[in-house]
Amino acid sequence: MDRTQILACYDWVDGVCFRHPGKGEVPTAKVGLVPLLGSNKHEVRACADCVIALGDMKRESSSRSAGKCQATE
Ligand SMILES: [Zn+2]
Predict the structure, then answer these.
(1) What is the pLDDT of residues 40-50, one digit of tens each?
(2) 17, burial (CB in 10 Å: exposed 0-12, middle 13-18, buried 19+)
(3) CA of 67 to the centre of ligand 1 (A)
């Protein structure tokens, strides 16, 4: 999947990226929930760059855990 296809999987709403709060309100997608004290859950939202970065990390860890990681050098 390319970047555009990955981003199209998410619903985009203006919000604050959890890694880039200094950017202020930017288009963000929900990437998870963080449990808070009590029964509240806090939505974790990420900007496009972070959504792509998180997707890359997930793909890497899933290929490692499946034992299909092959050395390319
Ligand atoms: Zn971000």
Answers:
(1) 888 899 999 99
(2) buried
(3) 30
